[in-house]
Automatic annotation (TrEMBL):
Family: Belongs to the GTP cyclohydrolase II family.
Binding positions for Zn(2+) per the UniProt entry: C220, C231, C233
Domain GTP cyclohydrolase II: 171-336
Protein name (record): GTP cyclohydrolase-2
EC number: 3.5.4.25
Sorted UniProt keywords: GTP-binding, Hydrolase, Metal-binding, Nucleotide-binding, Riboflavin biosynthesis, Zinc
Record keyword Membrane present: no
Pfam families assigned to the protein according to its UniProt record, in alphabetical order: GTP_cyclohydro2
Residues annotated as the enzyme's active site: D292 (proton acceptor), R294 (nucleophile)
Pathway: Cofactor biosynthesis; riboflavin biosynthesis; 5-amino-6-(D-ribitylamino)uracil from GTP: step 1/4
Length: 360
């Protein structure tokens, strides 16, 4: 009999705890560390962590660059918390919202000795929970998690799990007549790691032996549902479905990777930074993220599970074409999808072309 959670199940629990501000414990070859997210941790728990010993605030190299903090470990910086540092100080470093109002936050002491493996993993955990990529880390004894009822994660198991492609199970499909295509079916795919579900809208009965007209569309609450003029997502979604309806066949993959994979809350933080004059890439970097955190391998896996081996891909993004080919999906044709330009998103589209290589 087996009842204990496996690595993916424990990881899912850890994400939920982090979103509530509950710390978790990482255990590695170098010891154990208590990890808490800078975004959701409360003042009482911060004080308790400080009582355990020297606490590091771990930021990504991108965020450290903005703060002029030395990232001796390259992709992360271990900022030493000053004695008695308050929660507001921590959050000011993690969240760039007030960077322009209070630009001189340093100088900072950053750690350069010892392993940063658990610190790097702590930031990855926060990212996977769709939180700001900033974590507080303090060494603890190996039995700390059990003594305090906290989730414990073994680094050697969790690190590969965070980068692995989760297996997707086809849950159900049903007919959903659409304005653009009345002969459509909606398929639900659920990842085995407990993360967000993804969807496939199949128009007609596409021939599996021929390249199917396809689009990988990342969820955009503001553009797809609210009709936001700051992006071209809604028009692209509607134009793709309309073209599939006109041709009588196609498949649109709706991937729940809001805000280029950083989540809606962080996307709104990026929008706020754009209001201050930063472009979309600069905003992501100030938040501590890369230009694009999405995983297009999910789309390739769904296509394979649906029996498609070749596509005519509706996209302006060469990265999607490259990833499909890398994952064994033949891209017989790239079909441009240039719609939805507005005065409000002209600068955004120009940035996508200049910095992200989109063919616009």
């Amino acid at each position: 009999m087996r009842f204990a959670p496996d690595t993916y199940e424990t990881l899912s629990r850890a994400r939920a705890d982090l979103r509530m501000g509950v710390p978790v414990v990482l255990i590695g070859a170098e010891g154990a560390a208590l990890v808490a997210p800078a975004e959701t941790l409360g003042a009482a728990r911060l004080a308790s962590m400080q009582a355990l010993g020297p606490v590091d605030l771990v930021l990504t190299g991108r965020r450290a660059e903005t703060l002029k903090a030395r990232a001796y470990d390259g992709d992360v910086a271990r900022v030493v918390l000053p004695d008695g540092a308050a929660l507001d100080w921590v959050r000011d470093l993690a969240d760039p919202a007030d960077d322009l109002n209070a630009p001189m936050k340093g100088p900072f002491a950053t750690r350069r000795d010892g392993s940063a493996a658990l610190h790097r993993l702590a930031v990855s955990l926060c990212k996977s929970a769709r939180l700001l990529p900033a974590a507080l880390v303090v060494p603890v004894a190996a039995g700390f998690a059990a003594e305090n009822g906290l989730v414990a994660l073994r680094a050697d198991a969790v690190a590969p799990a965070l980068t692995a492609l989760p297996a997707l199970d086809h849950v159900v499909s049903a007919k959903v007549p659409l304005r653009a295509a009345q002969n459509a079916r909606l398929h639900i795919f659920r990842p085995e790691d407990g993360s967000d579900e993804h969807y496939a809208i199949e128009v007609g009965r596409p021939d599996r032996d021929k390249p199917v007209l396809a689009r990988l569309h990342s969820a955009c609450f503001t553009g797809d549902l609210l009709g936001s003029l700051k992006c071209d997502c809604g028009p692209q979604l509607n134009a793709a479905l309309a073209q599939m309806g006109a041709e009588g066949a196609g498949v649109l993959l709706y991937l729940n990777q809001e805000g280029r994979g950083i989540g809606l809350a962080n996307k709104m933080r990026a929008y706020s930074l754009q209001d201050q004059g930063f472009d979309t890439v600069e905003a992501n970097h100030r938040l501590g993220f890369e230009d694009d955190e999405r995983d297009f391998r999910l789309g390739a896996q769904i296509l394979s599970k649906m029996g498609f081996g070749a596509v005519r891909l509706l996209t302006n993004n060469p990265a999607k074409v490259a990833m499909m080919e890398h994952c064994g999906i033949t891209v017989a044709e790239r079909v441009p999808l240039q719609v939805g330009k507005t005065p409000q998103n002209a600068a955004y589209l120009a940035t996508k072309a200049k910095k992200s290589g989109h063919l616009l």
